[in-house]
Amino acid sequence: MGSTLVSAEFTLDSGNTAWMMTSAAIVLMMTVPGLAFFYGGMVRSKSVLNMLMMNFIAVGTVGFIWVMYGYSMAFGPSTTGFGQIVSSPFTYFGLNDLPDEKSLMALSGVPALVAVGFQATFAVITVALISGAIADRIKFGTWVAFTVVWATVVYFPLAHMVWGGGFLGIGGQVSKWLSTPIDFAGGTVVHINAGVAGLALVLLLGKRKGWPKEPIRPHNLPYTMLGAGLLWIGWFGFNAGSEFGADSTAGRAWINTFVATCLAMLTWLITEKVRDGHATSLGAASGIVAGLVAITPAAAAVDTYGAIFIGAIAGVVCALAVGLKFKFGYDDALDVVGVHLVGGITGTLLIGLFATTKQNGFLPDGAQEGVFYGGGFTQLASQAVVALTAIVFSFTLTLVIGLILKAITGLRLSEDDEVNGIDLAVHGETAYETLGGTRVLTEVN
Amino acid sequence: MTKLVTAVIQPHRLDDVKSALEAAGVRGLTVSEASGYGRQKGHTEVYRGAEYTVDLVPKVKIDVLVTDEDVAGVTEVIIRAAQTGKIGDGKVWVVPVEDVARVRTGEHGDDAL
C-alpha cells in the first residue's frame, strides 16, 4: 500500500480517483466471476454450483460487514496500544462520520468512500480464496457463518496490522526493531492468510470421500482457464491499484505483475513437461495464479529483473508444492496451500533479496533495499517476521473458529449428500442437463 | 428373419463407418455414445502432477438392423471401415431379433427394415 498517513486537507484528484474506482471494479471481477470459475472448473460436475456459490456468497456477507464495520476495524484511526492490532468497529460504523480528509487515500486525492470500495474487494477475495481448499464437503450454512466470523476476527485485524497502522506496518513495532515489512498489495494479508486458513479448515474437515484413491479430476478446464484469465486482468487493479493513484509507481507495479506472471506460467509448464511429460492447460492456469500471488507483495518494490526472478521461482516452487498434499495426506482440494500459501511466502521472502527503489521501485517508509541491492539482511529478516506472524495468527484463530463452528453447527456434509453431489443436496439444483434427467415431473400451477 | 449388428468402435472412425454402411445400402442405424474398455485398459491423465487412470474410455456404439442375407456383408463393412490396427479398435457382434416393427406404418419383420 502506498501510504496510510492522514492529511489535514483534502484536494480531489479526479485522475487518481477514476483509476481507483476502475481498480475496485476489476478487483471485484477477480472474485466474481474470476476466482469462482477458476475454482468451479476444477471441481467435479456435481459440485460446481456450490463452488460458485461459496464465492458469490462471500461477496454478499463480507461486502455487507465491510461497509458496516470492517473498514473501521481495518483502517480506523487507532495505531497505539491495542490499536497496533485492530481499530474499533464503531468509529466509522456504517461509514458515518468518514470525511475525505480521513480517507486512507487522502494523500493521492482519492475520496474516503472510494478507498472503502477498493479495500472491500480485497476483504472479499481473501475469504473467497479459502473456499478452494474445502471444496465439495462443507455445510453451506457453516461456510456462510465462517465468512462473517473469519473476516471479523482474522482479516480485518491482519489488514490493520500490516496496512492500517499496526505493528507490522509503517512506523509499527517491527519497523522499529528491524525495518518496515513490505507487503505492497497483499502477499501476507491476502494470500498467506487465506492459504493458512484453508489448511487449518482442511485439517478439521478431513478428506473428501475417496480421496486420493478415486480420481477427482477437473470437470471443465476451459472454465478454469477463463477464470485464470479474468484473475490476471483483475490483478492489475489489485497490484497497480495498491499504489492508490495513477503514477509511475503504479506503472512499475503493473509491469511487474505482467512479466512475473508470464514467467511463472512458463516455468510451471516447463516443470510439468520435464516431470510428467505434458504441458497442461491446468498447469498454465495454475502458473498464472502462482506468479500473480508471488509478485503481489513485491509488486512495486522490485525492478524488472526482480519481477522476472520472483515469477520464475514461484512457478517452479508452486508446481512442486501442489504435490505436498499427497505426501502429507491433507486434502487441500484445489491447492490453496500449494499456490496461495507457498506462493505468498515465496514472494514475501524474495522481497528480502530483490527490494529496491531503482527503476521507479517504491519502498514504504522505513523499509530497506534487499540483499542483492546492497541492503544487507535486515529486510529479509523483517519479511520473515511478517510472514511468520501472519501464519501463526491466521492458523491459530482459524482453528479456534473452526472448532467453535464444529461444536455449534457441525462442519461437514453427510456422506450420502457428499457422494450424491453437494449441488443437489445443498442448493436443490444440478449444473448440467443430462439425458432424461430434467423431465418436468410436476406441473407449475 | 432379422439380425441386430452392434459395433463398439473408436469415436473418430464413426464418419467412415457411416459412409461405408451407406454405400453398402444400409438405410438406417442408431448411434450412441458409450464408454468402456477392452485390452487397452484405458489411459492415464495428469492434473497438477497427480496421475489418474481413466479406465472407461469414450467409444461409439452403432446398432444396425439387417436381414439374414446382409449380416455377413454389413459386419465386414464395419470391420474394414473401423479398423486402424491399433489396440482399442472395438468389437462387432450379431444377435437374432425376434421381431421388428416400423412405428409409422405398423409393418413387421423384414418389411419394417
Describe it for me?
The complex is a heterodimer of chains A (445) and B (113). With 445 residues, chain A is mainly alpha-helical. Chain A has a single domain (14-427), classed as Ammonium transporter fold, CATH 1.10.3430. Chain A contains 15 helices and no strands. The model of chain A is unreliable at 437-441 (pLDDT under 50). Chain B has 113 residues and is an alpha+beta fold. Helices cover 19% and strands 39% of the residues of chain B. A four-stranded antiparallel sheet of chain B has the order 2-5-1-6, with helices on one face. In chain B, α1 runs antiparallel to α2. The model of chain B has no long low-confidence stretch (mean pLDDT 92). Chain A binds chain B through residues 212, 215, 217-218, 272, 275-278, 280, 282-283, 286, 319, 322-323, 326, 335, 338, and chain B through 45-54.
What series of H and E elements makes up the topology of chain A?
A: HHHHHHHHHHHHHHH
Q: Which band does the percent of strand residues of chain A land in?
A: under 5%
C-alpha Rg of chain B (nearest Å): 17 Å
**Chain pair forming the biggest interface:** A-B, 19 and 10 residues
Number of domains of chain A: 1
Biggest pleated sheet of chain B? 4 strands, antiparallel
| Count of DSSP-assigned helices of chain A | 15
Radius of gyration of chain A: 21 Å
Return the CATH topology of chain A.
Ammonium transporter fold
Query: What's the overall average pLDDT of chain B, rounded?
Result: 92
Shape of chain B: elongated
Outline of chain A, from the CA principal axes?
globular
How much strand of chain B?
A: 35-45%
Structural features:
heterodimer, A: 445 residues, mainly alpha, Ammonium transporter fold, 15 helices, globular, B: 113 residues, alpha+beta, four-stranded antiparallel sheet, two-stranded antiparallel sheet, 2 helices, 19% helix, 39% strand, elongated
